[in-house]
Amino acid sequence: MGPVRPIGSRMPERSIPLLCFGGEAVARRRDDGPLHRPGGVVTQCLEYLVQGGTANLEQLVRFVTDTVLRSGFGFDPPVKLPAVGVFGTPATDPGRPTIGVIFYRAHVLTGNTTFVTDLCDAITSKV
Asked: Is the pLDDT of residue 61 over 90?
């Protein structure tokens, strides 16, 4: 077994592009290594990721293939999505208590909302 090399350490010598992002919403330049891609590419990629949603993810892939690999697919800029909102059309009845159900925005962005609808239906039937 040869020497252990960090992940991605041979990528520059093989001319394989690699973009890595942490879990933060703000890009930070690390001083422990070179930045091989222009900062604008990293910033734009991060904007797609911060906004979230499947449409932004698709456009991120198109952006990277066009700007890094020069593929020519075309891409749209990131679409700003609201950070908070009201899901569905809430029914209000002055004779009944109002109950708010709070859940992560990521569920709406990925279409994973069946559990929210089921929970709201269950609450409505019991209150």
From this structure: yes
